[in-house]
Amino acid sequence: KAFGASETILPYARDYLQIIVLGAAFQTMGFGLNATIRGEGNPRIAMLTLLIGVVLNCILAPIFIFGFGWGMRGAAAATVLSQGVSAAWVLAHFLGGKSVLRLHAGNLRLHWPTCAAILAVGSPPFVMQLAASVLQSILNNQLRIQGAIQGGARGGDLAISAMGIVYAVVMMVVMPIFGINQGAQPIIGYNYGAQRFDRVKKTLQTAALAATAIAVAGFFITMVFPTEVVRLFNRDDPALAALGSHAIRVCFLMLPIVGFQIVSASYFQAVGKPKQAMLLGLSRQVLLLIPAVLVLPRFFGLDGVWAAMPAADLGSSLL
User: What's the angle, vertex CA 230, arms to CA 154 and CA 48, rounded to 5?
Assistant: First the structure.
């Protein structure tokens, strides 16, 4: 309820949450050790690890949801099992002698200077993830309130559903950008440490251009075919299709500059400057977006919630 769930949405959220938390250890193990695989110079193995989980999830989800009739619990169970397989794959890589690094019990003792350095460099993405959860709570509650004002009792649920579609489409666009970003970080960090600043600049420029190209492609697709995009998620509700199409067009107004913003903010994390990385990383999701979500609806209603995203994207890119 704190995250804005209505009485209609709450049973589905509860069913999903009770299962998905069981896979937290698998997710942490797979994601964390996969970053180590990428860092030691095996990006193909790292990519294969992610693909195994995603493909297995895509296969199991419809079987559990529709074939077994498990509904939301089936969706969560498919995700947990897929994460477990990915975690087992990663452990097999390190325990099977295929990796540069080895897992030995004697080497797992904490070395506090190293821990402090890891915490310093890792604090920006940690705070960003935490901020994203706070933002989601504020956003859902604003959608529920403004949607109910504009569209009656069902309006709040429609608005939350439309934003769910918007976020799913956003992730389709930005996940490849995150991939480029994560691939560039070790290259930037290594060459920055080696004082090969020509390579640092070239990597940053290449990553920013590639990320921008993906963002621009996503912008054109969503602006030209917003209704078709929404219908990929729901074909049976014309009201949701209309609201979702409008939301996509407003939310994605500044999408072409998002790739540049994400890569540029993460550059400072790669070169060991966590303060700058945290400021620029938080600017989009916290410093600008949360105030915009709270203020703009007072003047523009539900449209103010949609407009908060491009406003934050523009402000953070300028910063």
Answer: 125
